[in-house]
C-alpha cells in the first residue's frame, strides 16, 4: 500500500509491543526466566516459606551489629539470619542491591525472589496434595475410604484416615466423643480449643512415641520423610526403603540443583506444613488467615526450632534427618533428656 506524502513506514522499534520469538515449529518461545527466581524457590523451601524477601533484605541492610542484640525483636533476629543465608545463597547479592545503574534494585530483587517463593509453594502444595493419596493408599484401603487426589472436601477430621493423622497426639481419635468434637471444632486441650499448635500425630513416629519424652519422636513421621524426598530429591524416592541409599529419579532434584547436602530447620518446617495442609480440608493456603490451623502449626514449629532451651534436641533431630535423607551423620552426641 502506498504511503501518504512525507509519511514514513512504521519501524519495528515504533511498534507498541516487542517482536515475539518463535520456536522452529511456530510456537511462542518461553520468556527467559529471571535468574533470581530459582533462588527464591530454594529460599522458601529451606529458609522461610512465608516471609516477604524484600522484608528480609531491608532488615538485613538495616541491621546494626554494633547495637545490643536485646534491642531487636525475635522477628528481626530471624530476618537477619535469613538475610545472612541469602548472602551465602546468591552470588554478588550485596553488589546487586547497591548497583548505582539499577533502578530500585531492592524492590526488583525482592520481587524476583518473591515470584520464585510463590511458585515453589504453589507447585509443592499441588503436588503433595496429589501424592499423599498414594502414600496413604494402604490406610485408605483398610478404612474403606476413597480419596480423590485433587479434592480436599473429603479430608480433615471427618475422614477416618486424615482425621487420625491430624488429631493432636495427646488425644485418642478412636474415642467417639473426641472424634465428634474434633469434627465439629469443639475439642479442647487444657481448656484451649484444638488448633495447629497442638502437634498432630503425623508429626511423630508413633511407634517410638513416649508421652514423657515427646522430643524423641517429634518431626520424625513417615509422611514428613516422604514429603522431603518428594520435594528435594525426586517424587519417585518418596516411598523408598530407608535402609537403601538410592535415588530412582532420572532428573536432578532440588537439593542437587542447589548443592544442598544437609537439612535445615526451614526445610523440615516447610515439608511438615505442606503435609498438614494436604491432610486438611482447608481449600486455600492463606498465610494471613489467623484461624488457619496449618498457619498456626507452621508458626509453632518456627518457635520450636528457635527455642534456646531445645537446642540439644533440635541438634539431634537435624542429625537424624541428615542420616535419613542424605545418609550423612554429623555425630551429634546423645543428649540427656531427663531434665525436659
Secondary structure topology:
Blueprint: H1 37-46, H2 53-62, H3 74-89, H4 93-97, H5 105-135, H6 137-143, H7 160-166, H8 176-183, E1 188-189, E2 192-193, H9 222-233, H10 254-257, H11 265-279, H12 293-306, H13 311-326
Antiparallel strand pairs: 1-2
Helix pairs in contact: 1-5, 2-3, 2-5, 5-9, 5-11, 9-11, 11-12
Low-pLDDT residue spans: 1-18, 329-340
Molecular shape = globular
Q: For the residues shown, what is the average pLDDT?
A: 86
Kindly state the percentage of residues in helix.
40-55%
Alpha-carbon distance between the termini? Answer: 87 Å
Alpha-beta content class:
mainly alpha
Beta-strand portion reads: under 5%
Number of helices: 13
Q: Let me know the number of strands.
A: 2
Describe the sheet with the most strands. 2 strands, antiparallel
Secondary-structure element order, N to C? HHHHHHHHEEHHHHH
How large, in whole angstroms, is the Cα Rg? Answer: 24 Å
Q: What order do the strands of the largest sheet run in, or round the barrel if closed? A: 1-2
Write up what this structure looks like:
This protein is mainly α and about 350 residues long. The protein is about 45% helix and about 0% strand. The chain contains 13 helices and two strands; from the N terminus they run ααααααααββααααα. A two-stranded antiparallel ribbon has the order 1-2. Strand 1 (about 190) and strand 2 form a beta hairpin. Helix 2 packs across helix 3, helix 5 packs across helix 9 and helix 9 (about 220-235) crosses helix 11 (about 265-280). The longest helix has about 30 residues, at about 105-135. The protein is globular, with a radius of gyration of 24 Å. Mean pLDDT is about 85; it is low at about 1-20 and about 330-340.
Amino acid at each position: 500500500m502506498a504511503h501518504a506524502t512525507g509519511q514514513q513506514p512504521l519501524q519495528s522499534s515504533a511498534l507498541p509491543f516487542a517482536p515475539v520469538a518463535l520456536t522452529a515449529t511456530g510456537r511462542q518461545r518461553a520468556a527467559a526466566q529471571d535468574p533470581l527466581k530459582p533462588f527464591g524457590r530454594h529460599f522458601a523451601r529451606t529458609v522461610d516459606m512465608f516471609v516477604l524477601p524484600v522484608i528480609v533484605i531491608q532488615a538485613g541492610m538495616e541491621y546494626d551489629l554494633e547495637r545490643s542484640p536485646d534491642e531487636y525483636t525475635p522477628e528481626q533476629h530471624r530476618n537477619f539470619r535469613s538475610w545472612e543465608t541469602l548472602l551465602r545463597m546468591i552470588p554478588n547479592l550485596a553488589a546487586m542491591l547497591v548497583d548505582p545503574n539499577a533502578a530500585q534494585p531492592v524492590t526488583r530483587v525482592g520481587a524476583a525472589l518473591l515470584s520464585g517463593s510463590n511458585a515453589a509453594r504453589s507447585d509443592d502444595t499441588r503436588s503433595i496434595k496429589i501424592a499423599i493419596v498414594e502414600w496413604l493408599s494402604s490406610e485408605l484401603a483398610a478404612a474403606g475410604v476413597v480419596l480423590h487426589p485433587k479434592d480436599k472436601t473429603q479430608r480433615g477430621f471427618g475422614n477416618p484416615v486424615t482425621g487420625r493423622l491430624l488429631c493432636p497426639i495427646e488425644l485418642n481419635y478412636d474415642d467417639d466423643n473426641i472424634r465428634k468434637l474434633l469434627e465439629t471444632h469443639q475439642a479442647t486441650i487444657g481448656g484451649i480449643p484444638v488448633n495447629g499448635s497442638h502437634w498432630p500425630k503425623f508429626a511423630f513416629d508413633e511407634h517410638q512415641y513416649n508421652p514423657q519424652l515427646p522430643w524423641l519422636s517429634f518431626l520424625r513421621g513417615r509422611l514428613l520423610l516422604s514429603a522431603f524426598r518428594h520435594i528435594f530429591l525426586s517424587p519417585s524416592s518418596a516411598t523408598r526403603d530407608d535402609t537403601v541409599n538410592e535415588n530412582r529419579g532420572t532428573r536432578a532434584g532440588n537439593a542437587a540443583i542447589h548443592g544442598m547436602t544437609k537439612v535445615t530447620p526451614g526445610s523440615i518446617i516447610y515439608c511438615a506444613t505442606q503435609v498438614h495442609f494436604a491432610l486438611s480440608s482447608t481449600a486455600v493456603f492463606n498465610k494471613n488467615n489467623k484461624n488457619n490451623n496449618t498457619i498456626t502449626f507452621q508458626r509453632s514449629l518456627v518457635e520450636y526450632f528457635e527455642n534456646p532451651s531445645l537446642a540439644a534436641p533440635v541438634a539431634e533431630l537435624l542429625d537424624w534427618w541428615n542420616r535419613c535423607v542424605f545418609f550423612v551423620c554429623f555425630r551429634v552426641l546423645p543428649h540427656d533428656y531427663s531434665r525436659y
